[in-house]
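Please predict the structure of the following assembly.
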Amino acid sequence: MAPSPTLVEVTRGLAVESRHCGAVAVVDADGATVLALGDVERPVFARSSVKALQALPLVESGAADRFGFAEPELALACASHAGEPEHVATAAGALARLGLDDAALECGAHWPLSDTAARALAASGVGPSPLHNNCSGKHAGFLCLACAMDVAPAGYVEAAHPVQREVTAAIEATTGASLASAPVGTDGCGVPTYAMPLVAIARGFARFGSGQGLTPARAAAARRLMAAVWSAPNQVSGTGRFDTQAIQALGDAVFVKVGAEGVHAAALPALGLGIAIKIDDGAARASETAMAAVLARLLAPTGDAGDWLADRVRRPLRNVAGKEVGEVRAADALLR
Amino acid sequence: MAPSPTLVEVTRGLAVESRHCGAVAVVDADGATVLALGDVERPVFARSSVKALQALPLVESGAADRFGFAEPELALACASHAGEPEHVATAAGALARLGLDDAALECGAHWPLSDTAARALAASGVGPSPLHNNCSGKHAGFLCLACAMDVAPAGYVEAAHPVQREVTAAIEATTGASLASAPVGTDGCGVPTYAMPLVAIARGFARFGSGQGLTPARAAAARRLMAAVWSAPNQVSGTGRFDTQAIQALGDAVFVKVGAEGVHAAALPALGLGIAIKIDDGAARASETAMAAVLARLLAPTGDAGDWLADRVRRPLRNVAGKEVGEVRAADALLR
């Protein structure tokens, strides 16, 4: 593997304490490179960064319409949510539209990603259900697709299930990556996740955002998913979290989605560009900072949006007592 | 900065998903190198890895004896504890011996590092106090030293306070690092933290463990602190956490202590060696894996201790539903 440039530094006092290396790809819908840092051809597990691509068949097939999935359900299908009450309610409501409940979810249960929500749940005296799993909205979408396809939903997380075949085909069509021989793993929620070149993930989001290179039906599905997330930005992540705040700040200039292990992807519809970032060590603090720097460079927004991005490009680090002790900041390679 | 070798890999399926780079120094009490990977001369903020060195004046001065600090209080003074009820009780008891309570602590309050303890606290309907701060035992030790020195405790976290002057002198004497011109920052709990060469941290622990190169009184204090941790290993970290489990598994063959931002230090008293590790990106999962690999290489234990280390050198990664999806493993550079 070629050495990766330092993308993000964490300082303490006047010294750099920790460093995050990685790669960044920004391309248009034809795959033409706008920005490339590090090895953008090496295969990267896309993880949850491509949930919006995984949700395309849900809309394109008519399944969402047939079962009355509206903006919140569609936004949650693209989400890695924090397990807040609003997320849980949306997921439960989506399942109810299918005549199902959380027993149909194969993602497993974990405590809410939101500490506040986890503590409130603990205080209520009950544990987490699969509805609290950050992927429950995506899985509700998979179940919706299974119902619309009239196939047995059980085993919908398996690669050979008709639902995952549709999902994999949508990822291939948008990214242009051939996944048949790609490294495959099992994601945190049980579905297959494929490793594909970082440029392919970026190209997938350039196409997702612009519709270029997609069939009209798929382009319309992409527009509808983005509109759902823009209308319900808290569903896609959660209170105070990066993706939700980015969409609240930047509006329809951006669709942005984090994945586990330091992956982050975005579409800039008006510019026709897609962004994909992989932090080698998997740290979210670094992928978020790098994404903020790339968004600031490409969008150069002013006003509140510009202020929000600037704070994320160079973010003060406070200790327990609230004293500013350092910062997490984009490194020179991202600022040039 | 010289490029660092890959020390730890995180796999998914058959592919490497993420990588952690860093440096490892193993030296004897004279500073002679036994193992050096990466740039072991670059300054590294020692953070909480040196809490045991910071606790030396507490014992050496007679302060601990004067106020009746026994094994649990001394182990907690060396700890980054998880905020479990036993830790909170020990910290509160230590303060009571000084005629103080948690209002004297200047470390700030945070939720317990243990998710279980945090949820139980939330369920009880109250928030965290400074006693739950992972550093509360260290701070109780600082307050004990202030009381014994007959100086006003307020401001004991400041570099110019008599307590921190003693603490800094103890770090300098054990590590051999000159801290007057070293990069300095503020630690998470408010006290100064210094950046020193990784070899100096390793040398500090070689001396701490063996007593070589220390005054007889300081060597005795080090033995007493180690004995306290060996007799109460849960105090130094917490249920199921790396340092506690390592000491439970390996007994008096090792004293080991994590620090924030991927620092990990250990003393191997019988071998007269000290170990210091810095993961460039700050990840604890990597420092723990690297430490396990170095301990396995140097101690080569058999039986349960060997099994525990082997599991930590190559640790299965399970997804939410419990399926094994990959592993966190020491890379070749550590296994040669």
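The longest helix of chain B spans residues 216-231. Residues 6-283+301-335 of chain B form a domain with the Beta-lactamase fold (CATH 3.40.710).
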